[in-house]
Amino acid sequence: MPAFRALLCLACLLVFASGASAATFTMQRGLNLDIWTTWPGPEHWDDEEVLANFPEWRKGVTDRNLADIRKAGFDFVRMPVDPAIFLEDASDARISRLIRETLAAVDQLHKAGLKVIVDFHLIPSDSRKIGTKQVIADEALFNRYLTMVERLGKALSVTDPATTAFEALNEPVIDCDPDVTPKWPPMLKRLYAAARKGASVHTLVLSGGCWSSAWGLDKIDPAEFNDDNIIWTFHSYEPYFLTHQGASWTGDVMSYVEGLPYPPDLMGQKALAERLAAIRKKITEKAPEAQGPELLQGLDSMAGGVMNAVQTQSKLEESFKKAESWGKAHNIPPERILLGEFGMIRQEYQKEFRMPSAWRATYLRDMTQAAQQRGFPWSVWSWGGAFGITLDDDKRQLDPVILKGLGLRGR
Predict the structure, then answer these.
(1) Are 225 and 170 members of one domain?
(2) HEC profile for the chain?
(3) Is residue 255 part of a domain?
């Protein structure tokens, strides 16, 4: 094994020295894995059960489960890894163990025939000590984060750059106000420098601000990085009003929105009007009285732009058009622009309503077709959880209806 790695590193150095003009990592159709499944609190992060199953999607997963992902037609996975466990009260012993387990997970996925994007996946939580907002807002914490990015990048350097890429930060929550001078571009340069110092020959995956949106990407000048071994990514869940139905964690009206089909006029305008009326009634009866008017206004605002299939398709296409025009303006080949996340909710935690697979499949078909028509690779969110594409989170059997919508095959 050491001899193999020495030869691999020598080959990597030769590629780097030759000034390769393309990304060493290529991909087409991907699946996002789970970041956590039980969400253990920080007080458990040194427990052997947590460390031995890190990242936590490995817990109970068999080689057959992973083989099914490859057999379905996915050629890569995006593997979220929570940076907080590396940074919050973390000893060097914990960090070293987490890195070993991360590499073991990458190796496990490679053996299943899957390429891997290791995604250092910050979470935008106000209740956490270390989350997206905290890292971006605190200069000292951001510097600590960069040090860990470099360390993880260096650890990933032992892997094959043809089958492993590194995404150093997920969805920066910054620069969503178009009237304010963007702050993310200079921070992204520092993030890139740390990742590239650690992983000198591996493909890096970078995004713009505002939740890795296409509009955030539009504020980035790739020429300032002078590096063709970068995949540029954007995320899109548009139309949000349909993809996040029932989501309790969004902080807006979506917790009350359920039962809208895709496209929304699938069953006719009369049925759509009745469902919207039922949502308004639910808000009136169950929402806190002080919030009611604002929630009703938000409902009308979001629903107004996606009342039929034509409007829905137009809204869906906006992110793709923005990413496409950005790529053409900067001579970025479409295969280096990744739709890193997209999806439609399956069932919000602790709620009864479950989105019919047929509705979700139609949406996923429209999204993947929009990506493929432009030559963009994609990775759907996600294997399990509220947006899962499995029939359930225990057996991990991929939903054949969803696979068909993605243009893939079942068993």
Answers:
(1) yes
(2) CHHHHHHHHHHHHHHHHCCCCCCCCCCCEEEECCCCCCCCCHHHCCCHHHHHCCCHHHCCCCHHHHHHHHHHCCCEEEEEECCHHHHCCCCHHHHHHHHHHHHHHHHHHHHCCCEEEEEECCCCCCCCCCCHHHHHHCHHHHHHHHHHHHHHHHHHCCCCCCCEEEECCCCCCCCCCCCCCCCHHHHHHHHHHHHHHHCCCCCEEEECHHHHCHHHHCCCCHHHCCCCCEEEEEECCCCHHHHCCCCCCCCCHHHHCCCCCCCCCCCCHHHHHHHHHHHHHHHHHHCCCCCHHHHHHHHHHHHHCCCCHHHHHHHHHHHHHHHHHHHHHCCCCHHHEEEEECCCCCCCCCCCCCCCHHHHHHHHHHHHHHHHHHCCCEEECCCCCCCCCECCCCCCCECHHHHHHCCCCCC
(3) no
Domain that holds residue 293: 261-304
Q: How far apart are CA 307 and CA 263, in angstroms?
A: 8
Note the pTM of the prediction, 2 decimals: 0.93
Residue 9 resides in a domain: no
Per-residue pLDDT tens digits for 366-394: 999 999 999 999 999 999 999 999 998 98
Kindly report the CATH number assigned to the domain that includes residue 183.
3.20.20.80
On the question of a cis peptide bond just before residue 382, with omega within 30 degrees of 0, the verdict is yes
Q: Determine the Cα–Cα distance for residues 236 and 324; give it in Å rounded to an integer.
A: 13
In this structure, are residues 21 and 332 in contact, taking their beta carbons and an 8 Å threshold? no
Decide: 341 and 31 in contact? Cβ < 8 Å.
no
Residues 221, 335 share a domain: yes
Within a domain: residue 254? Answer: no
Predicted confidence (pLDDT) at residue 8 exceeds the cutoff of 70: no
* 210 and 342 fall within a common domain: yes
* Euclidean distance between CA atoms 95 and 86, whole angstroms: 6
Per-residue confidence at 409, pLDDT binned at 50, 70, 90? confident
Residues 292 and 169 in one domain: no
Structural domain count, the chain: 2
Query: How much is the pLDDT for 9?
Result: 46
Contact 360, 405 (CB under 8 A): yes
Same domain, 123 and 211: yes
| Cα(258)–Cα(109) distance, integer angstroms | 36
Q: Is residue 5 part of a domain?
A: no
For residues 370 and 239, is the Cβ–Cβ distance under 8 A? no
